[in-house]
Design goal:
A hairpin with a 2-residue loop joins strand 2 and strand 3. The protein is 32% helix and 30% strand. It contains six helices and 15 strands. It is globular. The strands form four sheets. Strands 1, 4, 5, 6, 7, 8, 10 and 12 form an eight-stranded mixed β-sheet that branches. It has one domain: Rossmann fold (3-Layer(aba) Sandwich). With 208 residues, the protein is an alpha/beta fold.
Length: 208
């Protein structure tokens, strides 16, 4: 479990309360998802490579650093879309690549329906964005796609994870670090995280 990172930041815990609250409306829900994405990405990018450089300040020359790695954001449609803006606020130059994967409600297995990745990778590291790591099927399938694409440095950034989803990721992709705001108790018989926060996509887009 050394590559499982659960934030202990007070702001993360505070904002997670709003997401769990069934009374939180879609507008507020989207705002909190965006804010939590920023906070968790801050923690997930502590090891980004930088280059030493200099910059002219009003008072002289200062030593500085700039990012060396080119970052790609891969939101799992559709719930992951709400996390993109939060990450972009930190890294506005990050590329965004969409991979469409949905969970079959009968089998709970991932089904890929959209993929427009270029032939060769254009980034050196990818952050997979998805609020809920439930069964882990979509996350595992997305990592499969990215590795076939040729990206070797991949991280998963989510909000809430279930032990079952974490175990699936650990089994299939133990090299992919997972960053979460919380780990919940279990999945119910229809694949939802308990206590969780419901369907993150429906709650963001008002389609419950």
């Amino acid at each position: 479990m050394s590559n499982i990172h659960v934030s202990n930041h007070p702001l993360v815990a505070h904002k997670l309360w709003f997401l769990r609250n069934q009374e939180t409306k879609p507008k507020k829900f989207r705002e909190i998802v965006r804010e939590l994405a920023s906070l968790l990405t801050y923690e997930a990018t502590m090891d980004l490579l930088t280059l030493d450089t200099e910059v002219q300040t009003p008072m002289g020359i200062a030593k500085a650093k700039v990012l060396e790695e080119k970052i790609g954001l891969v939101p799992i449609l559709r719930a992951g879309l709400g996390m993109v803006e939060g990450v972009w606020e930190l890294m506005p130059s990050a590329e965004v690549w969409h991979i469409g994967i949905y969970r079959d409600e009968n089998t709970l297995k991932p089904v890929e329906y959209y993929n427009k990745l270029p032939i060769a990778p254009t980034v050196s590291m990818c952050l997979i964005l998805d609020p809920m790591l439930a069964t882990g099927g979509s996350a595992v399938a997305t990592v499969d796609v990215l590795k076939r694409w040729g990206v070797s440095k991949i991280k998963f950034v989510g909000l809430i994870g279930a032990p079952e989803g974490i175990a699936a990721m650990q089994k299939h992709h133990p090299d992919v670090p997972i960053y979460l705001a919380a780990i919940d108790d279990h999945l119910n018989d229809i694949g939802y995280i308990v206590p969780g926060l419901g369907d993150a996509g429906d709650r963001q887009f008002g389609t419950a």
